[in-house]
What we know:
Elements: E1 2-5, H1 6-14, E2 21-23, H2 27-30, E3 39-40, E4 58-62, H3 67-78, E5 82-87, H4 89-92
Parallel strand pairs: 1-5, 2-3, 2-4, 4-5
Organism: Cytobacillus gottheilii
Protein name: Rhodanese-like domain-containing protein
InterPro entries: GlpE_sulfurtransferase, Rhodanese-like_dom, Rhodanese-like_dom_sf
Amino acid sequence: MKEITAKELEQKQNTKEKLNIVDVREDEEVAMGKIPGAKHIPLGQIPARLNELDKQEHYYIVCRSGGRSSNACQFLIQNGYNVTNMAGGMLDWEGEVE
């Protein structure tokens, strides 16, 4: 599974690169702030919401510490998606939040 650090993802975001970020945390966690532009799909809803993701796109998957996003990545890879896990999750994120 591909991984990226929070700092590397922040640097990509700062270059205005088009990024598809999916936050798999629960509603109450996202309410405390998420990466600007990130799509929120709680981990438990991913199987039912696969139609919202395009297999032609690449996605960065984010959670609080990297565990749930790793599980989401494994599921998405098995279903033919191109994904990268953000290691360390939002605990390591130092960039802007919305």
